[in-house]
Amino acid sequence: MRTLQICAAATVAATLAGAALHQTLPAALAGIDAPADRGAVQDWVYGVLRWRGRLDFWLDRLLDKPLTDPALGELLRISLYQLAFTRAKPFVVVNEAVAAAGTGWRRGLANAVLRNFQRRRSELDAAALQDEGARWSHPAWWVARLRRDHPHEWQAILDASLAHPPFTLRVNARHGSVADTLAELAAAGFDARQTGPDAVTLERAVAVARLPGFAEGRVSVQDAGAQWAARLLDPQAGMRVLDACAAPGGKTGHLLEYACDLDLTALDADPARLVRVRENLDRLGLAATLLAGDAAQPAGWWDGCAYDRILADVPCSASGVVRRNPDIKWLRRPEDLAGFARQQAAILDALWPLLAPGGTLLYATCSIFREENDDQVAAFLARHPGRAERRSLPEPLTDGSLLPHAEHDGFYYALLAKPV
């Protein structure tokens, strides 16, 4: 019998081998019937990826010599996570791990490591706080980059990146108010609070099928930080709008909710991902023109008519959303940033001629690295002297950065205007 711990360990291993978590985890959960078991496996997988730096630190000190069995190593990380970060009964965790370890020396090692951890827990906790890799559970290059880019905020950024992400809804202003939504959620037994003009954050995540108004399009799941895009771009009724790199369609839907009668084109390079955009718009009862095409190569899809507003939500390192996608920090490499920066520059340069005089382009990333944000925008403005100007943004976005926080993920925005 394949135990839940083995399932979780195999999922972590497959993810770190290069398969995306959004693919490996659903595949693993598909073979588990009980909702509680699916929830447990999901928590263990996310937890081990989130806290891998600390778990590795502990494991190194609990082993007499390096472990040569990778599968057993992942099983021990799952079990250490359960002991340290969940309310599971220790004797149950140890017994299940020993049973899952197999036979012979593996069983004995699992038993010894986990019981030793329980005895030495205070000592190991204190030691972990003195080791940067264990304390922050991010790659060393990542921490160094944050120190450089955000010398005053880097510790708060890392703390926020290790926390569980908020579960936030966007209220569809066409169908009701935040107050109405809060009342409806309270009546359904959900504690929630307002965290933005159209944002409502629940105390805990719930299945969307249980959310009042979700199926009818009255609410959508969207981080409060991502909800800034529509307000900053500020499209007006009847405008021609391009949402470049649109999938999965959260910002597309918000733009259409924000202003009536938009002539909106949702563009994405992946035709399969446009299916998600269509599904989201159908649920909201909204319409847009969906196009498959490369934002950096408009000759293949542009009809020659200029846009009044362009949202360039470009591919990036996703460093601002690692608490939702903890595999990213272990799979990214420092050299990846230069590749993203080249792609972002190509998209900006290709889209700028498509913007009408007097129009605005909102450059957006979910990155917190300067190379993809301020440096990218400064380089763009230098390439287009006198032909583009950067507009000021309201608090808390005066410098464009929205750093990871208890109430939102990390984002970056720059509003670029084309003179008349």
What fold name goes in the CATH topology slot of the largest domain? Answer: Rossmann fold
Structural class: alpha/beta
Give the distance, in angstroms, between the N- and C-terminal Cα atoms: 69 Å
- For the secondary structure, the number of strands is 12
Oligomer: single chain
Average pLDDT confidence is: 97
Determine the strand fraction and express it as a percent band.
5-15%
Helix content: 40-55%
Name of the level-1 CATH class of the largest domain: Alpha Beta
Count of helical stretches = 18
CATH superfamily of the largest domain: Vaccinia Virus protein VP39
Radius of gyration: 23 Å
Low-confidence stretches: none
Net shape: globular
Largest sheet: 8 strands, mixed
User: How many distinct domains?
Assistant: 3
- Please state the second-level CATH architecture of the largest domain: 3-Layer(aba) Sandwich
Helix/strand order? HHHHHHHHHHHEHEEEHEHEHEEHHEHEEE
